[in-house]
Write a structure and sequence with these properties.
With 398 residues, the protein is α+β, with helices and mostly antiparallel strands. It is built from twelve helices and 14 strands. It has three domains: 8-104, no CATH class; 126-209, Phosphorylase Kinase, domain 1 (2-Layer Sandwich); 216-386, Transferase(Phosphotransferase) domain 1 (Transferase(Phosphotransferase), domain 1), CATH 1.10.510.10. Helix 8 (310-325) packs antiparallel against helix 11. The protein starts with 7 loop residues before the first helix and ends in a 17-residue tail after the last helix. GO terms for molecular function: ATP binding; protein serine/threonine kinase activity.
Length: 398
């Protein structure tokens, strides 16, 4: 059975029918009928009731409409979605069924999985709530839920429409990069679960693990008195994550490292690098060319459009500065243009000049020096700065 081209009027009809408990309707060219199930199948709290063909449906303008009836409950299983696909003539293509009704699902209170979800992915595994966890330079992060594993996740949405209009190849390239990043497994890198591109909406969606204490910036704002020992432990964990990215084959440059996309589990002190949606996969010369990032944390060479993974070391130094001072670098009321002028002319942020601890100041200065002089993440992990941090040390920097 071959589906017809998408029909918006048919979707509006599906929306109205959804209020009555009809989850999906799909227009088809052929008149072949699929017999209804002899009895409903029950899987947990939801029930597949059956389906039928409705001929000459005037409201949608479709000569043939198949409709799937469901009793709404807490969650529909993957097997039920497979049944839905089979009944509607898309055997083995659950995504097609859900893709046809995803916009309609909101009418029924946010989707056919849980009544307070705003959206579900095409497989039906991941759901998105309305609650926003964070905002990035091009990204919005929502609280999500993995219904298969029963755990909370982060649902990330990157809007690509403007980027696609400027350079259509960037969309496919970014999608491919995030797919590769999903294969990364490291204790100090946020895990990827799934990524997909919504071309109609111009949005790249990806699902990641979530750290319940939020970003390091938020955590540091809540906890103002932190020991030097704790700060060094966080700094070392970030470096371990960076070293994994930079020694990956191919090399991965984060490009937007800052304290808003480094996350922490407050009950364990474990830190993880996140917001990998803007990362670049680079070839053997370790060179990238796209300008992306957060101005206060961007290395000077990022503006020249040719750079290596050492830009992450610069950003890392600015992260450490923010962790220590609880101030944004160049937060002294400068505009983006003024920040650009300061960075490209080697003027350090005022927060660094005010930092009284000489060891900490020297460590940060190593990170934000000239590209050719910046140490690698592996070099920094061997720096005496980190010696003895597992011992009981005293003193705070705030």
């Amino acid at each position: 059975m071959t589906p017809s081209a998408p029909d918006h009027e048919g979707e509006r009809h599906a929306s109205s029918m959804l209020k009555k408990g009809i989850v999906a309707s799909k227009c088809v060219r052929e008149s072949k009928s699929v017999p209804p199930r002899s009895k409903p199948r029950e899987d947990g709290p939801s029930q597949l009731v059956g389906h039928h063909r409705q001929d000459n449906d005037g409201s949608s303008g479709c000569p043939r409409v198949f409709q799937l009836h469901l009793n709404f409950g807490h969650a529909f299983t993957r097997r039920q979605m497979g049944d839905a696909a089979e009944h509607l003539g898309f055997d083995g293509q659950m995504g097609v069924v859900h893709g046809h009704v995803r916009k309609c699902a909101r009418i029924h209170g946010g989707g056919f999985f849980m009544n307070n979800l705003e959206e579900v992915d095409l497989t039906g595994r991941f759901g998105r709530y309305a609650a926003v966890l964070g905002l990035g330079s091009v990204k919005k992060v929502y609280r999500g839920f993995d219904q298969e594993e029963g755990i909370e996740v982060a649902w990330n949405r990157v809007r690509l429409r403007a980027l696609a209009e400027r350079d259509p190849s960037m969309v496919d390239r970014l999608h491919a990069e995030v797919r590769l990043l999903r294969s990364l497994h490291h204790d100090h890198i946020i895990g990827f679960h799934k990524v997909w591109l919504d071309r109609d909406a111009g949005v790249l969606n990806f699902i990641t693990e979530v750290c319940n204490s939020g970003s390091l910036r938020e955590y540091r704002d809540r906890h103002k008195h932190v020991s030097l020992k704790a700060l060094k432990k966080w700094a070392r964990q970030i470096l371990e994550g960076l070293d994994h990215l930079h020694t990956h084959d191919p090399c991965i440059i984060h490009r937007d490292l800052n304290c808003s996309n480094v996350f922490i589990n407050g009950n364990t002190g474990q830190v993880k690098i996140g917001d990998l949606g803007l990362a670049a996969i680079v070839d053997k010369d370790h060179t990238a060319h796209t300008i992306l990032g957060t101005p206060e944390f961007m290395a000077p060479e990022l503006y020249s459009e040719t750079y290596t993974e050492s830009v992450d070391i610069y950003s890392y130094g600015m992260c450490v500065l923010e962790m220590v001072t609880r101030e944004m670098p160049y937060g002294e009321g400068e505009s983006v243009g003024q920040i650009y002028h300061s960075v490209t002319n080697g003027v350090p942020p005022a927060a660094l000049r005010r930092l009284r601890d000489p060891e900490m100041r020297a460590f940060i200065q190593r990170c934000i020096g000239k590209p050719r002089n910046r140490p690698s993440a592996a070099d920094l992990l061997r720096d005496p700065f980190f010696h003895g941090i597992d011992d009981d040390t005293t003193g705070t920097l705030s």
